[in-house]
């Protein structure tokens, strides 16, 4: 989510949560307060997309972002949200379009291996999924979605969106607000011997050798809670305060997945628009020797976007994982995430 990585509310960006968007009949926002249809959970009341009792369903999914115009539904463009919502509406035979809430909205070209979303499904539609089989509703939904999402793909059945799991969510679950953190990886091949044509869609081929040790030193100076305005595209009404939990660079040794690649691991409670790719861009300036290791921290302290900080290419970025608290802490976490943060 770098071209269109906008998020709304208190958190925005690559790994930040977003409300569902897009055209279609008016549907209640699953994250908005107020009365609504009965939801089979004991957490805060959350309006569902249709009249009657609904089941909140968690989806764990992955996608190759190469041929998508990002996550968010946009008129006339192929997006992950649009493709998946259309498939869900078909499989569940819903009277109104399915509406997804996602953990982190990704830009055009950005991939996801561990994306999480939720939707509210009418109880009768959920119960009807197995038909006469002995599968659970979640297993049936995953199987049926695989058929719809893989339709027309080449090779046959190999769609670029895969739902790995569908389960009833515990009370208080919200894919967007209940998340504790999001973890991304950014992959670079800075040596021709590490360039694998089979990985060209998720690895950036960099033409200059990188000083990974210097990049890692620079990255560690950015950890903690800060206002990351210097690394975010501003959005009216949205805070840029984030807690960066991990930002480290390493050259992966032989014998491990991604061997030979330079890989950044980036983990935060949320990300604002373009934050990860801007952090990568600043790191690359250090790795190439164009800037000292302290420069990214100086940029952060300035609080202002600088032309010298290039936003790294989208296709090297992958959302790897989203973490949630134990079930009994979900509602508490969601309430915390809804609050707009300020620095002490």
Automatic annotation (TrEMBL):
Region feature (Disordered): 1-50
Binding of substrate, residues: 184
InterPro entries: PsdUridine_synth_cat_dom_sf (IPR020103), PsdUridine_synth_TruA (IPR001406), PsdUridine_synth_TruA_a/b_dom (IPR020097), PsdUridine_synth_TruA_C (IPR020095), TruA/RsuA/RluB/E/F_N (IPR020094)
Coiled coil (residue ranges): none
Residue ranges of every copy of the Pseudouridine synthase I TruA alpha/beta domain listed in the record: 218-325
Keyword Ubl conjugation: no
SUPFAM superfamilies: Pseudouridine synthase (SSF55120)
Annotated keywords: Isomerase, tRNA processing
Pfam families: PseudoU_synth_1
Superkingdom of the organism of origin: Bacteria
EC number(s) reported in the record: 5.4.99.12
Compositionally biased spans, kind Pro residues: 20-36
Catalytic activity: uridine(38/39/40) in tRNA = pseudouridine(38/39/40) in tRNA
Active-site residues annotated for this sequence: 107 (nucleophile)
Keyword tRNA processing on entry: yes
Role of this protein: Formation of pseudouridine at positions 38, 39 and 40 in the anticodon stem and loop of transfer RNAs.
Family: Belongs to the tRNA pseudouridine synthase TruA family.
Subunit description: Homodimer.
Protein name per its UniProtKB record: tRNA pseudouridine synthase A
Originating species: Georgenia daeguensis
Gene encoding the protein: truA
């Amino acid at each position: 989510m770098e071209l269109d990585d906008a998020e709304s509310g208190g958190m925005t960006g690559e790994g930040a949560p977003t409300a569902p968007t897009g055209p279609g009949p008016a549907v209640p926002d699953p994250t908005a307060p107020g009365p609504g249809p009965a939801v089979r959970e004991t957490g805060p009341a959350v309006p569902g997309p249709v009249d009657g009792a609904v089941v909140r369903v968690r989806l764990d999914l992955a996608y190759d972002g190469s041929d998508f115009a990002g996550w968010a539904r946009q008129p006339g463009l192929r997006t992950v949200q649009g493709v998946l919502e259309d498939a869900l509406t078909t499989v569940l035979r819903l009277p109104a379009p399915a509406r997804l809430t996602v953990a982190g909205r990704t830009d055009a070209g950005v991939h996801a291996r561990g994306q999480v979303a939720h939707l509210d499904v009418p109880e009768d539609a959920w119960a009807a999924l197995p038909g006469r089989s002995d599968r659970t509703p979640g297993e049936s939904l995953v199987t049926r979605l695989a058929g719809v999402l893989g339709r027309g793909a080449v090779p046959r059945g190999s769609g670029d969106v895969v739902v790995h799991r569908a389960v009833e969510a515990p009370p208080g679950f919200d894919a967007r607000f209940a998340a504790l953190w999001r973890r991304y990886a950014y992959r670079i091949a800075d040596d021709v011997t590490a360039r694998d044509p089979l990985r060209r869609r998720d690895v950036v081929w960099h033409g200059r050798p990188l000083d990974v040790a210097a990049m890692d030193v620079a990255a560690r100076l950015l950890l903690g809670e800060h206002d990351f305005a210097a690394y975010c595209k501003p959005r009216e009404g949205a805070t840029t305060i984030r807690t960066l939990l991990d930002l480290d660079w390493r050259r992966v040794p032989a014998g491990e997945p991604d061997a030979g690649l330079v890989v950044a691991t980036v983990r935060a409670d949320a990300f604002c628009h373009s934050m990860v790719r801007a952090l990568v861009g600043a790191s690359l300036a250090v790795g190439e020797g164009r800037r000292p290791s302290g420069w990214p921290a100086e940029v952060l302290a300035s609080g202002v976007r600088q032309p010298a900080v290039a936003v790294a290419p989208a296709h090297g970025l992958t959302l790897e994982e989203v973490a949630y608290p134990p079930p009994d802490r979900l509602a508490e976490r969601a309430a915390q995430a809804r609050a707009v943060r300020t620095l002490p």
